[in-house]
Amino acid sequence: xxxxxxxxxxxxxxxxDPRANAFELAKMETIRRKQHPLILITRVKxxxxxxxxxxxxxxxxxxxxxxxxxxxxxxxxxFINEVNNVIIKYWPCFFTFILAFGFSIVSCFLSLYLPRxxxxxxxxxxxxxxxxxxxxxxxxxxxxxxxRNLFNSELQFYKL
Length: 160
Hints:
41% of the residues lie in helices and 19% in strands. The chain has 4 helices and 4 strands. By secondary structure, it is α+β, with helices and mostly antiparallel strands. Strands 2-1-4-3 form a 4-stranded antiparallel beta sheet. The chain has one domain (38-159). It has helices at 22-35, 73-90, 94-102, 113-136, and strands at 39-50, 56-59, 142-148, 153-159. Pfam families: Erf4. The chain crosses the membrane at residues 94-114. It comes from Paramecium pentaurelia. InterPro entries: Golgin_A_7/ERF4.
């Protein structure tokens, strides 16, 4: 099934309800983490252009040696390639960034929201990819999460 043809309300691969209260989901995640804390194994740094408060245009495909006992190099490369392909597919075009930054003064910086629409697609489909890989790595007791801050983002691998 392609990403374009999935229906979020009926597709069982995505067990979350996109209409759910974000506060309730965050509260449930906090409770789960207190009961079962995650142990950070390694971080995969981002490469290339960053959109502020968003993902990078790509992530490093250099295999971290810390993952050797948990994930094979081939699995890691397949994972990073899929992540980077999803980002490339939904990344806003260069023209979008030029328009956004060019009109930012005239629009009191509201035009910077223009690329944000595409960045939200990147983050949503990146979430689907991470969820699918987390399901396949569940028996290996590994979880990967996407973390972002103002000017950087990374993929963090945890031991459950």
